[in-house]
Amino acid sequence: RHVAECKAAIAASTYKNVEVIVVDEGKERSYQRNFGMNKAQGKYLLILDSDMMVTPYVIENCVMLMELYKYIVAMYIPEHIVTPGWFGRLRNWERQFYNGTLVDCVRFIRRDMPNFPLFDETLHGVEDSDWERRIIGVKATCSYPVNHHDKCGVVSYLKKKKYYAQCLGKYKAKHPNDKLLTFKYRCFDVYVQNGKWKRLLQK
């Protein structure tokens, strides 16, 4: 169901010159993303999960900015969690603090950038952060969001985080000085930097 909705959202985009590759190999997410990227022929790549729906101007805005500013190598895309219920609202409120930070991950990337990286298939959950750290260059943020239909309750959310935490040791070995691994950044700085403390106090 979500795959059809994801494809429909792309088809409804204002930017039409796209190639859509759907990967369902029954493997880990990092493997599937690498498989898709190796098949892609376009100048840019947009990485989406099946439960993510682009809003109409996302692709056009990303292409426009990267065509205009050739030094931009990748872009963050703001993410709105649209899961119903109080937990969905809580996650969406929290997610807005992450946009464009070390907790976030770029999703739109220039294919012809030097040393284009693939995902580390030995990492699960933290492969996004590892991939983002290996993309060297200027990164910008799209003006429009994707809607994330992550229908994850409290229990399933905690189980998912526990599973992902199993790879933190490998991630730390690759990026020992990453601020993302510090309690101060993850649980304090990301919520207050750049004036975000005002939004924190409002809620």
Brief characterization of the structure:
By secondary structure, this protein is an alpha/beta fold.
Ordered list of secondary-structure elements with their pairings:
Layout (H helix, E strand, L loop, with lengths): L1 H10 L17 H11 L4 E3 L5 E3 L3 H11 L3 E5 L2 E3 L4 H10 L12 E3 L16 H7 L4 E4 L4 E3 L5 H12 L2 H7 L8 H10 L4 H6 L1
Parallel strand pairs: 3-6, 4-7
Antiparallel strand pairs: 1-5, 2-7, 3-5
How does the overall form come out from the CA principal axes?
globular
Beta-strand residue percentage = 5-15%
**Mean pLDDT across every amino acid position:** 92
Unreliable residue runs:
none
Major beta sheet summary: 4 strands, mixed
N-to-C SSE string, H for helix and E for strand? HHEEHEEHEHEEHHHH
By secondary-structure content and strand pairing, the structural class works out as alpha/beta
Features:
7 strands; four-stranded mixed sheet; alpha/beta; 41% helix; three-stranded mixed sheet; 9 helices; 203 residues
What do these coordinates show?
It is built from 9 helices and 7 strands; from the N terminus they run ααββαββαβαββαααα. It has 203 residues and is α/β, with parallel strands linked by helices. The strands form 2 sheets. The protein has a 4-stranded mixed sheet, with helices on one face. The chain has a 3-stranded mixed sheet with strand order 2-7-4.
